[in-house]
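Supplementary notes for students who missed Thursday's class. We covered one full example, reproduced here. Read the sequence, then the structure, then the short commentary at the end.
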Amino acid sequence: MKRTIFLFSVLCVFLSGGTIGAHEWFGTIGDIKDFRPGDTVPVYSYSTHHLIAGEGIPRPGGFYVLQNNNLTDVKITTTANETLNLLSQSFTLPTGAPSTVLLNSSARFSNTTTSGNKSGTKATIKALGLTIINTFLSEDWCKIYINPSSQDTSFSRPLGLPLEIVPVTNPADIAIGSPAVFKVLLHGQPLCDANIFSTYKSYNSKDAEAWAVKDIKTNAQGLVTINIPNVQGAKDVWIIKTLYSGEVKDNPAYDAESYNSWVSFTVRK
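Structure (token representation):
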């Protein structure tokens, strides 16, 4: 079944853990290569921002492959790797076109009530007879770019995610020793002063955060430039993360929102 990218509802990787913000996750591609039609594509889902060790294994879910502006249902093979603390997933690529693997943790609601914190929608909590002080929505998204092409233009098309990182520089053209530009959108509008973090798989740091690039922010147009270092190991799988948290006015469903958004791509030049 195929659907246009603006009409989908995706239920993907769920996280273990209870409190909001207790765990993070992202997905990366397993191999740095061009995949041909019929090839098996490995995808690894980690439950923390550190690429070397995880904090727990996400529970299995589904995900979709975006090709030619359509979401294509694919059969997913899922294996939990207890040693590496990751979820290993794979699928057969339908065509060799530039593709985006799209993963999502479904929206989660947390309520501060006069009887403590409770999970669930406002309607669910009110049905329990509890008084709600405020309701908090959180949701996470990850996009993984595979088979990038210098002739492709679909990479720069926003998918309409609540918080989204959109490449301005074609992932196919990102090279070590060169700048790569990305744009951050919040509900479709440029997000200024968004914190940006980035690293690559072989980056080695004793810092628990393990970010090769951090402490940079988007400008007034929501743009940020990441300088890909010209160092050994930088030709690798990269991830970029941003996050947002803020109050919401005049929304009957929730009073505040929080999002994590990731993109993953390979630097091969």
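Commentary. The radius of gyration is 19 Å. Residues 1-22, 49-61 have pLDDT under 50 and may be disordered. If anything here is unclear, bring it to office hours.
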